[in-house]
Amino acid sequence: MDSLNDREGFKRNRVNAGRGALEDLKDMQFIADFHIHSYLSRATSREMNLENIYRWAQLKGVTVVGTGDFTNPHWFKELKEKLEPAEPGLFILKPEYSQRVDEDIPESCRAPVRFILTVEISSIYKKNGKTRKVHNLIFFPDFQSASRFNARLQNLGNISSDGRPILGIDSKELLKIALDTSPESYFVPAHIWTPHFSVLGASSGFDSIEECFEELTPHIHSVETGLSSDPPMNWRLSALDKVTLISNSDAHSPDRIGREANIFSTDLSYYAMIEALNHPEKGEFLGTIEFFPEEGKYHFDGHRACSQRMTPEETIKNQGRCPICGKKVTVGVMHRVIELADRPSGFIPQGKPSFESLIGLTEIISEIQAVGTKSKKVQNDYFRLLRLLGNELFILRECSLNTLKSAGIPLLPKAIEKVRNCDVNIIPGYDGEYGKVRVFKEHEKISNQLSLF
Questions:
Q1: pTM confidence score
Q2: What are phi and psi of 429, to 5 degrees?
Q3: CA–CA distance, 225 with 282 (Å, rounded to integer)
Q4: C-alpha dihedral over 108, 110, 112, 114, to 10 degrees?
């Protein structure tokens, strides 16, 4: 049984694989984050309106962003009111709304933003004698087809009470409705490993994509890996070789946009992006920007109520029970991947789009300054860096270390260099608890500070 107690080999493979396609970026490359939620979704910030999504997409460096939640009648009305068509299948925020926002965007971050119509739907249903809970992400290229799709769903359940509707419909039937509504719709199983709500989740999913979608499986061209897994984990399943691995933020607040995302080198259009995802061998889908998967809320097994974080081996040894209270533990993503894998850890398939793993800029500044991410000091430094250097993803991925040295935060160049080399320390997340990420070990931070002094 593999263990994440020893991550060195896995980390080296991630670095080596992650540098390929993404180091030689083409001039046309742009970043897309398809999966977010509006303020009308449960447990989502009231700040998730179109103006703030537009603002934060620029601050983060995201060119194409999902609308999320278009099945909600109130949000759909707002989308139609505030967006207008741009390139094929994409939309812009109308000037009467965007101009007010642009005044507050630093010159260094100002960039075009396009919206794409997307929604996440929760399907809860019985299949093969088991209750299934699967989340799926669906794209549409125009308001007309999205409106027809909404009308179909309205007859199946309540699509008004939440931005992400919960419907008692089989995922295969939902896919069929999307395809019947428009052959240009795009259907992506969301965060496929999450224990409770995904197609391969340990608690309510299936053991394969085919078991869920049956004869319609050929229409599934992409899957979303989720925050708690990354491409190397998914590469361990040969069954996933036939689909493209994408990553999205699943943002519930504007400052989370772009924490995971996708990199394209295509024309700016819905159809060009879909073509790139369907045919990654053409090289126009360059890969993904990832969380370190250990940081995800469901990476390891465990029982949060008893503060028990467990490796897959420990879960097996304890027969799936919490060693404190005896209740069933939540089986995490790493355990589930190992369970279904038919390849060893570190396997890198030929010709796959690559990836890179990042830590958010506010988290890095917070660690350096030893204060919280929401503190005034961290926020002031964050926005000062954006004004000085450019958007967040540029700073994290491309800004030269020499330029970073002029930014006035002494440990920042070293911290970003370490992140780029995946030289970080993480206590894995479990049972709904995010992992804890540190760039520096305590002795490294002191040593670096002394050498700078």
A1: 0.93
A2: -75, 160
A3: 21
A4: 110
